[in-house]
Amino acid sequence: MADVCCFPPVASPGARILILGSMPGRASLDAGRYYAHPHNAFWPIVGELFGFSPELPYPARLQALQAAGVALWDVIAACEREGSLDADIVAGSVRANDFPAFFAAHPGVRDVFFNGAAAEQAFRRHVLPALTATGLRLQRLPSTSPAHAALNRAAKLAAWSAILKPLTGGEGV
């Protein structure tokens, strides 16, 4: 088993939206960038939603997200996993990121979107029970991973358009 660690959060002080993945895959870890796998739909989807090219250099894509009030991070700080699949994460090895500190530093974040079921499940299991932040609205979106082939890119884009509207029907905590 390999020990893997996530990246630091990408967030401006004025962030309003937080997008959470579970843990970067091997391609992202090797590249040192969020969503680096060439077939991951994350950058094409958020680029279309926020009006920037997914072909921009990585720092410019991060700046575009931050300018739109979007923060990016992962639920899991570290874990043991072979390969890239969330299903291969050793459950007892999961250590969550410090979300109380994140929300204290970014009090404007009210809408939390999960990039897939694994991110949502990890947040609910490892973060939510100890979280004292109130007023958060949580919503799972379909994973942008190429491993999630149940939806095509157009269907994923339609679902991800939810991040353009404040959550009103999402679960509040």
Explain this structure to me?
It is a single chain. The protein has one domain: Uracil-DNA glycosylase-like domain (Uracil-DNA Glycosylase, subunit E), CATH 3.40.470.10. Helix 2 packs across helix 6 (153-160). Strand 6 (111-115), helix 5 (117-126) and strand 7 form a beta-alpha-beta unit. The protein has helices spanning 26-31, 42-50, 58-67, 99-105, 117-126, 153-160; strands at residues 3-5, 17-21, 70-74, 76-80, 95-96, 111-115, 137-141, 171-172. The strands form two sheets. The protein has a five-stranded mixed sheet with strand order 3-2-6-7-8. With 173 residues, the protein is an alpha/beta fold.
Total helices: the number is 6
> How many DSSP-defined strands?
8
Q: Classify the fold: give the CATH topology.
A: Uracil-DNA Glycosylase, subunit E
CATH architecture: 3-Layer(aba) Sandwich
Mean pLDDT: 87
Query: How many whole angstroms does the radius of gyration measure?
Result: 15 Å
Strand order of the largest sheet: 3-2-6-7-8
What is the C-level CATH assignment?
Alpha Beta
Structural domains: how many: 1
Give the proportion of residues in helices.
Answer: 25-40%
Distance between the termini: 35 Å
Shape: globular
CATH superfamily grouping? Uracil-DNA glycosylase-like domain
pLDDT below 50 for ≥5 consecutive residues: which ranges?
none
Summing up helix and strand content along with how strands pair, one would put the structural category as: alpha/beta
Please trace the helix and strand order, writing H or E for each element.
EEHHHEEEHEHEHE
Strand content: 15-25%
Largest sheet: 5 strands, mixed
